[in-house]
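Hypothesis: this fold can be encoded by more than one sequence.
Test: take the structure tokens below, design a sequence, compare later.
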């Protein structure tokens, strides 16, 4: 056992392929440099676990690994699932969480905190947690313990991605490929800096619509289809039809986008990003006025394309712009949207 250990979990920006990872589709996220670091220090005099975060004031004392319905659940859940997997007892430690990743902006802070805690625990107990087990465990903590029903994209890219290659992942069979990003263009993240209204229930509602639609069409998941036919239209409610349209068309877009990235076709890639945004706004209905405004501003400046990133309901957009124009674009955005923050 070590007396001090450190684990780092990176955030991500999803370039295209939104709301596909729980529908058996393809996604194309890129790991970003902002991360969450979890440091564990032995604390011999304590029977409990203390959790301190640089983002929140209160330090928590945890005697029982139970849900508290706050940010610490990701840490508590990680401890609980780690205990179960390795049959260890976790106490007499202090856990320090430090973050350079803005929370709740759609850049996957939940996966980052869980991955960093599990990595640090693995190091502390010298367990050599394999990447695949780390991904699965982090996924279970989020889905089963915390209870947010996303897919496996965030955990995957946090563990297996890097800052220079996008991770083209088939979430159905977990096959993946790393593709270098464009050299002359930058994926710039712009935070709308408004309170994100992602409630777990809104997210889960969308997921349920997708599952119901797939059930009605008698397919395993929505991405098993490549188009919606007349028959499907009769079967589905308006809402189910809308989410299905987004998911099925978005999946085709991601496959095309991955090929454009390989072929260095930035303009074509950018167009797909904007198509994705329009579909997220009009069909999946998870965009907001602020996100739409940022997308419009970026595109009217001359970005190749832009879209909201992550779940939506507020948060950030990602835009593809020539590297030499980035500073000019930032000024242009601030003129039209003074609250914007660049990440
Ligand atoms: C959230 C979830 C992800 C994914 C995105 C939407 O970030 O955690 O798994 O579903 O939304 O693409």
């Amino acid at each position: 056992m070590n007396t001090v250990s450190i684990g780092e979990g990176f955030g991500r920006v999803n370039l295209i392929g939104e709301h596909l990872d729980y529908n058996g589709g393809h996604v194309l996220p890129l790991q970003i440099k902002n991360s969450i670091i979890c440091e564990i220090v032995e604390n011999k005099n304590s029977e409990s676990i203390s959790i301190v975060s640089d983002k929140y004031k209160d330090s928590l004392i945890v005697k029982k690994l139970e849900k508290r319905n706050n940010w610490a659940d990701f840490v508590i859940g990680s401890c609980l699932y780690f205990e179960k997997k390795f049959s260890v007892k976790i106490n007499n430690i202090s856990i320090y969480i430090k973050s350079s990743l803005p929370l709740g902006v759609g850049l996957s802070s939940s996966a980052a905190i869980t991955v960093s805690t599990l990595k640090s625990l693995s190091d502390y107990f010298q367990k050599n947690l394999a990447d695949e087990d780390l991904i699965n465990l982090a996924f279970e903590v989020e889905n089963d313990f915390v209870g947010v029903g996303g897919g496996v994209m965030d955990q995957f890219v946090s563990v297996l991605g890097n800052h220079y290659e996008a991770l083209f992942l088939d979430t159905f069979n977990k096959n993946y490929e790393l593709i270098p990003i464009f050299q002359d263009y930058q994926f710039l993240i712009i935070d709308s800096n408004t309170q994100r209204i992602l409630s777990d229930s809104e997210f889960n509602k969308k997921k349920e619509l997708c599952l119901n639609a797939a059930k009605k069409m008698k397919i395993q998941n929505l991405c098993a289809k490549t188009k919606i036919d007349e028959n499907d239209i009769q079967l589905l409610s308006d809402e189910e039809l809308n989410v299905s349209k987004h998911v099925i068309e978005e999946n085709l877009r991601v496959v095309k986008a991955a090929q454009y990235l390989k072929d260095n076709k930035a303009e074509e890639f950018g167009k797909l990003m904007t198509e994705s945004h329009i579909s997220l706004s009009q069909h999946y209905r998870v965009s907001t006025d602020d996100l739409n405004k940022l997308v419009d501003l970026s595109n009217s400046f001359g970005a190749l394309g832009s879209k909201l990133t992550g779940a939506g309901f507020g948060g950030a957009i990602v835009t593809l712009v020539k590297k030499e124009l980035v500073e000019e674009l930032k000024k242009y955005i601030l003129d039209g949207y003074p609250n914007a923050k660049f990440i």
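Residues 14, 18-19, 21-22, 108, 150-151, 153-154, 310-311 surround alpha-D-galactopyranose (CB under 6 Å). The longest helix spans residues 238-262.
Hypothesis status: open.
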